[in-house]
Write a structure and sequence with these properties.
Order of helices and strands: HHEHHEHEHEHEHEEEHHHHHEEEEHEEEH
Number of helices: 15
Distance between the termini: 18 Å
Radius of gyration: 22 Å
Helix content: 40-55%
Number of strands: 15
Strand order of the largest sheet: 2-8-7-6-5-3-4
Strand content: 5-15%
């Protein structure tokens, strides 16, 4: 059967963009080709490549930010340590939804978690001259590796697909026992696979981080978005699981972008354990006038990077965290939409011969959420991504995220209600054109 978009149009566009291997095409390249093909063909694309919020920004934040601007806050430089009310509410939010005690002092506003990771990488990589390498538990967010490339810091990675549960200990320790690992990085829930580490896995990570004196950077960009559990009630279990329960060597990166759909204002909070915040590393003390880890992070790294975080955005974040902790704003109710979309999309793909690549958290099916992963029998990642473009469906290959599995990352954020029928129709044609062996 003929494909919805002429193959020649897609093939020529890929060639014109100079992409040699479509498996390695970046998010921006896939997006650009999809936009070009949509315009030239007149066929609407079902866009699944970009991890951008697809819901309106939290009104609680918008109102607070507008008020702060109207009150004149824009004329004033923000404190490098952060707006005191935001620091207080970040500490309270962590207690309310993770059940961990971190003092306001140790909660530092950043220009989104991206800046939080950059400053954390800088601080961790300079803390001990013998520990010069960052370890990624992949798959993960590719831009974090680019940050290290920009810094000239070494990194190692492994795909966690075959190392869930008890298998994680031996694999993780094989890297840590070299003595070179300064930091361990992962996201939970995970971008792109949406796996969620279990308590026993986080305990393994925490215990080994303590044993080998490595700092865990826990990226909570998709905070409380494991929709299999009701994580919406502040100060009551169940809580967002965290490595913070199992080690003092941790940095939690909490973003406003996805949980509150506040991506445009570049606001987040980096929460450093009190023990780590006040810890003195000889290498840092020698380089930065005797300062402890946390003050190196804020008064040196962040100060050098941006001299603080957008003042009005800090008021927005403070208001959102406060309302969530007060129980007057259930942010999870708004973002549950992503889980509903994932459920419907998976159903359509699986009906037509696709399978979910990262499908389990040990013995439990993964949650429905912001992302999921798909594969098709007999096709490599690059072949599948290329082929789906003929059907007006765009997604990125897992290889770009550090995964060793053949498949694609699907993002649910931009799916419109009318596109489920489109996808059903197009995947029926796809299945006929690509019979499984």
């Amino acid at each position: 059967m003929e494909t919805p978009i002429k193959k020649q149009l897609i093939d020529q566009a890929i060639q014109d963009f100079g992409i040699q291997d479509f498996a390695k095409a970046t998010i921006r390249e896939v997006k650009s080709i999809a936009a070009f093909a949509e315009k030239e063909s007149g066929v609407e694309f079902i866009k699944m490549e970009m991890g951008i919020p697809g819901l309106p920004a939290s009104q609680v934040g918008v109102d607070a930010q507008i008020k702060s601007l109207e009150d004149g806050i824009a004329h004033s430089y923000p404190d490098i340590q952060g707006y005191p009310e935001l620091k207080k509410e970040a500490s309270r939010f962590v207690k309310a939804f993770i059940n961990i005690d971190i003092s306001p002092e140790s909660c530092v506003p950043v220009c989104g978690s991206m800046q939080g990771t950059f400053a954390s990488f800088l601080t961790c990589s300079q803390a001990n001259p013998e520990k010069d390498t960052v370890l990624f538990i992949d798959p993960g967010f590719p831009v974090q590796k680019m940050q290290l490339q920009v810094m000239g810091v070494k990194y190692e990675t492994f795909d966690v697909y075959d190392y869930r549960g008890d298998l994680l200990r031996e694999k993780l320790e094989s890297y840590l026992k070299t003595g070179r690992i300064c930091a361990i990085v992962y996201s939970n829930p995970n971008n792109p696979s949406w796996i969620c580490f279990r308590e026993e896995e986080l305990q393994i990570i925490g215990e080994l981080a303590t044993q080998y004196d490595a700092i865990v950077m826990e990226d909570l960009a998709y905070f409380a978005m494991d929709f299999r559990k009701d994580l919406s009630t502040p100060f009551e279990p169940p809580y967002q699981v965290s490595v913070a329960n199992y080690t003092d060597n941790y940095i939690l990166l909490i973003s406003g972008s996805k949980a509150f759909s506040y991506a445009g204002e570049r606001i987040g909070v980096t929460c450093i354990s009190d023990k780590l915040f006040h810890r003195h590393f000889p290498a840092l003390a020698n380089r930065y006038e005797g300062l402890p880890f946390g003050l190196v992070f804020s008064t040196r790294m962040l100060y050098a990077l941006s001299s603080g975080t957008s003042h009005s955005a800090q008021y927005a974040m403070a208001a959102m965290l406060k309302a969530a902790s007060d129980g007057t704003y259930n942010f999870r109710e708004e973002i549950k939409e992503y889980g509903k979309r994932a459920h419907l999309l998976k159903k359509i793909f699986c009906k037509h011969g696709f399978y979910v690549v990262y499908d389990k958290d040990l013995d439990e099916d993964i949650a429905d959420g912001f992302y999921f992963t798909i594969g098709y029998p007999g096709m490599t990642s690059g072949e599948l991504a290329h082929e789906l473009m003929y059907y007006g469906v765009s997604a990125i290959c897992l290889i770009t995220t550090g995964s060793h599995q053949e498949g694609l990352r699907v993002c649910t954020s931009f799916i419109a209600d009318h596109q489920y029928d489109q996808l059903e129709e197009r995947m029926a044609i796809f299945e006929k054109n690509n019979p499984r062996n």
